[in-house]
Amino acid sequence: MLRLPSFTYLEPRTLVDALKMKADAGPNASYVAGGTDLYPNMKRRQQEPGTVISLMGIPELKATEGRKDGMGGPVIGAGVSLTELSVLPSFRRSYSAVSTAAALVSTPLLRNMGTLGGNLCLDTRCNYYDQGYEWRKSIDFCMKKAGHICWVAPSSPRCWAVSSSDVAPVMVAMGAEYRLAGPGGERVVPAGRFYHNDGINYLTKQPDEILVDVRLPATDGWDAVYHKLRRRGSFDFPVLGVAAWVRWEKKGRGVADARIVLGGVASYPQEIPEAAAALKDAALSDSTIERAAEAAFRPSKPMDNTDFDLSWRKQMTRVYVTRALEELRNRRGT
Length: 334
Ligand SMILES: Cc1cc2nc3c(=O)[nH]c(=O)nc-3n(C[C@H](O)[C@H](O)[C@H](O)COP(=O)(O)OP(=O)(O)OC[C@H]3O[C@@H](n4cnc5c(N)ncnc54)[C@H](O)[C@@H]3O)c2cc1C
Ligand code: SF4
Description:
By secondary structure, the chain is of the alpha+beta class.
């Protein structure tokens, strides 16, 4: 059985206290929410913080529904569990892509513990990295932790570990905003600018910053869906996620604007502008959907570091984008 190393555990009750504790503890400290990503990583010695600061006692991170902000939609606290997110009636009604993605994460136990914030900050994944210490030592580690080489692309100067969050692609597709609190104050960043295409530095957030809440746009004439490919439907991480968002034309039944975002194929949720361009100002006909799926297929370049054959995963991009757009069309009733 893998055991946790010893560490100091702190439980702040306010954001200010949490930021101060992090500043005092320095780079050797890590925030934790539900712990369903951090603790397994600590057991495998992928992450080894000497101090762990729990965010779960901070009421501000637990806000659900009710509050609205400049985007006109709900504000949801980063500490809300995935289970809550998947059953909130207002979300199931008006933000069903979010509740669907949350409901598709892993198992009920992990969704009860796992939070929205932890999911949006989830560590990137790779078959050569998500292994126990002895396994990684036997290959002399890799550049994401303790080593010098990338075993997926040995001549590459960067890490290609995969963004494996189910909810992040939906937030990017919907144009959500994240509120961050840091030592220098607060800032709000668009979800699409929160992620880097780099398996090691996969977030633009500073290590001290806390993701406080997520702001969603008002529901006015748009719709979004999420489709996920994985081996075991009851358990596994996505090896491909497709979040599709469209704004319908005010008059007529065409698409005024669109965003297609892929999860599980790059180190960040990858927006595909070419696919969006194929949808814009067009009716969601079979041929439009085919063009958009083809446009998404070309830049979808999964690496050989998760489950399934990579060329098959690439092929599935076309299939899953088609399914997502067909679902949007069916919901619209066109
Ligand atoms: C067997 C298994 C299967 C899984 N399957 C899936 C899956 O299918 N899809 C999926 O998306 N995930 C999956 N996960 C990963 C994980 O369970 C979820 O992503 C979960 O939402 C993580 O949330 P958490 O609160 O437990 O994160 P934690 O482990 O607490 O934190 C994760 C990271 O985020 C940081 N963090 C957390 N909250 C904040 C915050 N508010 N501000 C700043 N930093 C923060 C932590 O410092 C840490 O680095 C799986 C995990 C396991 C063990
Ligand atoms: S992509 Fe390369 S560097 Fe990154 S975790 Fe995998 S093997 Fe390591």
